[in-house]
Amino acid sequence: MSCIFCKEEVGSEHEEHILPESLGGKDWAVLPEGLVCEKCNQYFGAKVESPALSSFPFLPFRLFLQIPTKRGKAPRQQVTIGEIMSSGIPGVVGANPRDDEIETGIREENVTQMRIRAEVTEPLAVSRLLLKMGLEVVAADNAEDALSEKFDEARKFVRAPATGSEWWFLMVTDHDSLFRKLKQGVTCQEWFEGLKLEVVDEQGAEVFHLQLIDMHFITPLERRVGPPDMSDLSEPKYRLFNPVC
Ligand SMILES: [Zn+2]
């Protein structure tokens, strides 16, 4: 079999998760063996998954959903009051106050809020992670199809993007609903019900859609699909990114 990303022959086999384990992808998310080579797998882990999953929006998502890393570690993030981390209990996060003043403030209930910087700092990694997932969803359904020429540009952007090349993605978030659910604590069942990875037809081309509870990510798997007209789609619910490599 050829690797769906570099088209080289796949030598040694390994487990490849369509939805990364650090984003909650378990056994059901494993791609059939022999579709991704070890070299590409290593590359994605270091250059795509690592920066994407350790930044907004995936990091706070993992943190509040209590999704540990592959090695079982609790996700952590810097916030205004110091550092917060998963506690393992739905709806509850632990905190490491930045200094004594904040620690005392928390104890005395003067400090009751913290702010997370809701800014996508690694749009290129997010874009490439979405594309990688999209191509793997195609491959899980039909490995031959994933190797077709129409995905060559997506493949290149994921594995070896040319300097100056770009690939858009749209993020759609229902912030109120998401915040309410994260505060209450999301059960395993709710998390599963709010999860979707699908490739849909749009303007006669294939587009990938990832849904994580109340967050949606949309990116084309073929470059000819242009970004949506943003004049009717306002921020912060709709955010269009067009990261350049
Ligand atoms: Zn490969």
Quick summary:
The protein has helices spanning 38-53, 58-64, 100-107, 123-141, 143-146, 152-159, 175-184, 188-193; strands spanning 76-79, 82-86, 93-97, 169-173, 195-202, 205-212, 215-220, 238-241. With 245 residues, it is an alpha+beta fold. The protein is globular.
Name some characteristics of this structure.
single chain; 245 residues; alpha+beta; 3-stranded antiparallel sheet; 8 helices; 8 strands; globular; binds zinc ion
Question: Would you write up a description of this structure?
Answer:
With 245 residues, the protein is of the alpha+beta class. The chain has a domain of 122 residues. The protein is 32% helix and 18% strand. Strands 5-6-7-4-8 form a five-stranded antiparallel sheet. Strands 1-2-3 form a three-stranded antiparallel sheet. A hairpin with a 2-residue loop joins strand 5 and strand 6. It is globular. The mean pLDDT is 92. The structure holds zinc ion. The site of zinc ion has 7 residues, from helix 1.
Bound molecules: zinc ion
Mean pLDDT equals 92
State the order of secondary-structure elements, H for helix, E for strand.
HHEEEHHHHEHHEEEE
Going across the major beta sheet, what is the strand order? 5-6-7-4-8
Work out the oligomeric state of the chains in this entry.
single chain
Give the helix/strand class: alpha+beta
Measured distance between first and last alpha carbons = 30 Å
Query: What is the percent of helical residues?
Result: 25-40%
What's the tally of helices? 8
Question: Per DSSP, what share of the residues sits in E-state strands of 2 or more residues?
Answer: 15-25%
Rough shape?
Answer: globular
* Major sheet characteristics: 5 strands, antiparallel
Low-confidence stretches: none
Radius of gyration, in angstroms, nearest whole number: 19 Å
Count the E strands: 8
